[in-house]
Amino acid sequence: MTSVATKSYDHLGLGDGPKPKSMVRAKRWSEEVENAFRFQTAGYRDEIEYKIIMKIEPERWPVEPGYVKKLQRRDGTYYYYNRGRECQDKEVHKIKLYQY
Amino acid sequence: VVYKIVRMSAAACQSLQAQGFTLKAYMKNSKVVGPPSAGAFAERPAKPTAFRKFYERGDFPIALEHDTKGNRIAWKVEIEKLDYHHYLPLFFDGLCETVHPYEFFARQGVHDMLEHGGSKILPVIPQLIIPIKNALNTRKRPVICTTLKVLQHLVVSGEMVGEALVPYYRQILPILNIFKNSNRNSGDGIDYSQQKRENIGDLIQETLEAFERHGGEDAFINIKYMVPTYESCMLN
């Protein structure tokens, strides 16, 4: 298993990818917050960072509203998520929403 | 000396206790006691599980994580690529466990595999029955609780899984019949197990209703045969 974290992505011409301009913490739960929770649990800032590092689209549930289903982490292991809501109210305030 | 012996035997006669339907029970001074407890609700020791052996040997494709978010398994292999015939019965075997980390990994592993198994679950059903039966037979409240939630998840995990469980009701349902009425009468006090979804009586009712909803047309009559006090949630 190769560690993705040590790889350089300079050859992609992206540098480290687009840098977020600002960040706000989520106040209440929404579908956007739910997906951000899933990426941040797996150790990524958000979907943009995941795509740059892993170079794949995150797998999503085919059923509405199509939350993220499976994410590969930087150490090569996988996190699996339920089709329904997972982010509990007590965790919502920890979620960071980045703006570009 | 003779006087002493007579006094002692008189004292012994006063406290004579006898089981019913024995010769002793016919004696004048004997007191017949009730039958001993059969121990239907008593916890039974679980045998060492294969899950524990495999876990300690490092056979499972799961990574241990010691962080504060300890409610998720990091899979080293994609679940879709796992051999369900091998791993799913092993994880079910771990449902008998009550101590960390075995209990957590068994419960969470079963949850993940059922959630993402789809059509791979149905062919494995016959191999799951013995681990389920063993877990319920321990009669430990936390183990029964977890197993009931797993059963509720199992019937909705894939097409025809509910129907495939009907022939195995004879193995699964006797314990549910024993504990079906185990609801605490706390008067007007608060039973916190209701909030935490740990009330065995309620969980059994929910599980039987899930069996009936997903078990097809033969489900109700088969449930009724094993749990006579169950009333249909669909016919009424």
TrEMBL record, chain A:
Membrane-spanning residues: none
Pfam family, one: Meiosis_expr
Coiled coil: none
GO cellular component, one term: nucleus
InterPro entries found in the cross-reference section: Meiosis-expressed_gene_1
Residue numbers spanned by region Disordered: 1-21
Protein name: Meiosis expressed gene 1 protein homolog
Organism: Ciona intestinalis
UniProtKB/TrEMBL annotation, chain B:
Pfam families, per the entry: ParcG
The gene coding this protein: LOC100177695
Name of this protein: Parkin coregulated gene protein homolog
GO cellular component terms, semicolon-separated: cytosol; neuron projection; vesicle
InterPro entries: Parkin_co-regulated_protein
Top-level taxon of the source organism: Eukaryota
Native species: Ciona intestinalis (Transparent sea squirt)
Annotated GO MF terms: Hsp70 protein binding; Hsp90 protein binding
